[in-house]
Design a protein that fits this description.
Elements lengths: L1 E8 L8 E8 L4 E5 L6 H8 L7 E6 L2 E2 L5 H8 L2 E4 L11 H11 L4 H14 L15 H13 L5 E5 L7 H16 L3 E5 L3 H6 L4 E5 L2 E5 L5
Parallel strand pairs: 3-8, 3-9, 6-7, 7-8
Antiparallel strand pairs: 1-2, 1-4, 4-5, 9-10
Helix pairs in contact: 3-4, 3-5
The protein binds adenosine-5'-triphosphate and magnesium ion.
Magnesium ion binds next to helix 1.
Length: 223
């Protein structure tokens, strides 16, 4: 779950991203995050990923009040929340394999399990021949699939996906949406930021629309 109470969020010298916003997203939700370019979608996802604190107000993520919690609690919480960044943010000096395995290594998981899970996901992403390469040698779509693999490998409770289909072809988009639905069926809350109205029409779900510092929740399914 994600709960905002009277949250203000802004960067210095720019218009507010959130102005006194309250919002409740129950655990297990699947929703789109829309709004025009520059309105603050990526910033909002980064706040849900505990990278940015609100300027005012309270946030609860997975029943944890983030402003009242200790650092160790927040570290544990962060391991349950994954993000697929709009610009991928792969680590350039790590191989593809090590990029994907990183979240599991941060949890001190056994290397045998890490190996099994990482290889399985590499195969699913059709990247099993690229394990020893570094990110900069891959295409945009390949890099995006690695960013997706890294975000889902530790089976998060909240998945924040920032324009996750931009570099993918049509078949990969269908497979990815299937994967998101499977994760959602397991109870993961999924929020996908996108500009792509066709994608939203193809996969109807409630919409959070960010506009003028407010979030409008639109349950209507557009056909
Ligand atoms: N680190 C930062 N410092 C100051 N301003 C920032 C910072 N990051 C983003 N901004 C500004 O905040 C606003 C929201 O940016 P953000 O990237 O969240 O928008 P967005 O809705 O994701 O846009 P897009 O659809 O183009 O990806 C923009 O005006 C941007 O210039
Ligand atoms: Mg963005």
């Amino acid at each position: 779950m994600i709960q905002l109470d009277n949250v203000n969020l802004y960067y210095e010298q720019s218009s507010p991203i959130l102005s006194n916003v309250s919002l409740y997203i129950p655990q297990g939700s699947f929703c789109w995050l829309t709004g025009s370019s520059g309105v603050g979608k990526s910033t909002l996802l980064r706040m849900f990923h505990l990278e940015i604190k609100p300027n005012q107000g309270h946030i609860q993520l997975l029943d944890t009040d983030i402003l009242k919690s200790r650092r160790s609690t927040l570290c544990n919480l962060k391991q349950r929340i994954s993000i697929i960044y709009q610009d991928f943010k792969l680590i350039p000096n790590l191989t593809i394999y090590d990029n994907i395995a990183l979240p599991l290594r941060l949890q001190n998981m056994d290397e045998t399990i890490i190996n099994r899970w990482t290889n399985r996901i590499l195969q699913w992403m059709n990247l099993q021949n690229k394990t020893r390469l570094h990110p900069k040698t891959l295409s945009g779509g390949e890099q995006q699939r690695i960013a997706i693999a890294r975000a889902i490998i530790n089976r998060p409770d909240i998945l924040l996906a920032d324009e996750p289909t931009n570099a993918l072809d049509e078949e990969q988009v269908l497979r990815l949406m299937d994967l998101f639905y499977d994760l959602n069926d397991l109870g993961c809350t999924i929020i996908i930021a996108t500009h792509n109205d066709n994608l939203i029409r193809q996969f109807p779900a409630p919409k959070l629309k960010l506009e003028k510092g407010q979030i409008k929740v639109d349950d209507a399914i557009q056909t």
